[in-house]
Amino acid sequence: MIVATEKINQAYERLKDIVKRTPTEKNQNLSENFEANIFLKREDLQVVRSYKIRGAYNNIVARSKEETKNGLVCASAGNHAQGFALACRVLHIQGHVFMPITTPKQKVNQVKMHGKEWVEVILDGDTFDDSYAKATTFCNETGKVFIHPFDNLDTIAGQGTVGKEILEDVNVPIDYLFVPIGGGGLGSGVGSYFKQVSPQTKIIGIEPLGAPAMKQSLAQGKVVTLDKIDKFVDGAAVKRVGETTLEICKKVLDDVVLVPEGKACTTILQLYNTDAIVVEPAGSLAIAALDFYRDKIKGKNVVCVVSGSNNDIDRMQEIKERSLLYEGLKEYFIVNFPQRPGALRSFLDDVLGPNDDIVRFEYLKKTNKEYGAALIGVEYKNATDRNALISNMTKNGFDHIPLRDNPVLFDYLA
Does the predicted TM-score (pTM) go above 0.70? Predict the structure, then answer.
């Protein structure tokens, strides 16, 4: 089962006066880096700064007046909610939006701005899946219709219009398409269109390492519900993909790549510094995955879908931190100081390298501090500087625990 091109073309006609036809443009820096022709489909420039308006609007306008008269409901980590809110305002339909409590404030404010008096935002639950459960219960109690962010054929068809625009705008055969995967709506829609119009294109789905719901579901041949996820890539972090999207992705995806959250952060910073492109973590996934396909894409024509740019400025410090940790340029240790006078001075003089910088230092004991353990954060100039630091601590009698080797302690720090 895939979505027919006719259904996607119908969605395109519904959407063409509502959504922005975003550019698919060659990126010179990425092309030179990977020795390939790298094109970016800039859905970060969309009306609501993500592709989600396409699926939300198409799903809503496909409904009958009888279905919409009582109001509509959605659950979202942020981007679908914005598309839903704008559609409700344009179509004069009352909407209820369920979002996780952990949703960045920027996304919550954008939902309210796009929906104005036509939407009510309800913050409930820690993850999208929690909000989804609350929203479906609300629908069962009130009789309102739920507008699914991904597991619905009209939503999928709306997202498929991204693929239609790419193939109309890129005038060379596309060898690879990199597309982010959350619940699977975008991959299903774009993948359906490509498999019918450009079947030679290899379609690579990209998930965050901390939320591999689609990869695990494909591996087991059924929808798998993850017990725990890393919520950082909020636009793509779901515990469970859709039943419909899984069946379509089985047929359209050629591979699924898992991108570490820290790698996504490094990509966010690189895009900003080199091209002044601002993306959210989910929006960086397709570009971040290029490194994992470097040899295969050399000399090829490649399109990356930049899915969104709804990034909260308050998250930038965390993004920088995660990037440094991933690149091996920052690290935390618990260091137990030897029971001798001048131990701290010895650490500074004999352990730290000339380019090492202490960025965090705190004793873990409130009393007798000078003889206790300390939490120390160190930034390196080069990742290889770590080896010298470890060697110096061992040689000078400083027992230490690298927190990156102990997930429980590191999570406590974070």
Answer: yes
